[in-house]
Amino acid sequence: MSYTLHAVIVKKPIELNQAKKKAKHFITDKPLKYRETNSSYRFENYPKGEFETKTFKTKKINDDVSLIFGTHKEGKDELIEGGNILDDMINKIGDFLLKYNPITYGVKSGMSRAQRK
Fold this sequence. Notes:
Layout: E1 4-11, H1 16-24, E2 33-36, E3 40-44, E4 57-60, E5 65-70, H2 85-100, H3 102-105, H4 113-116
Antiparallel strand pairs: 1-3, 1-5, 2-3, 4-5
């Protein structure tokens, strides 16, 4: 069972333009589709109906951003292109934290992924 990114949630009071920049860090291969709630912006990577129910897991990245992962329903995996999805997402999270939380991530701002290794 492998997990796929379903959605990126960015909490308010962050402005929409800033929220889009943060979401675009994780959803890079398609136009951003979002809905607004009273407390956040929810950017969808894949529709909720394409995932198995009760498989959703939330990973809090920082105080403003959370990622929601789920397991695709059988037959929906063709939507995911090849490559190591988990490694790619771990790199995206690291790059995001480096850009938006360099102090709490424990590295100097501006270090590349190669410099961190």
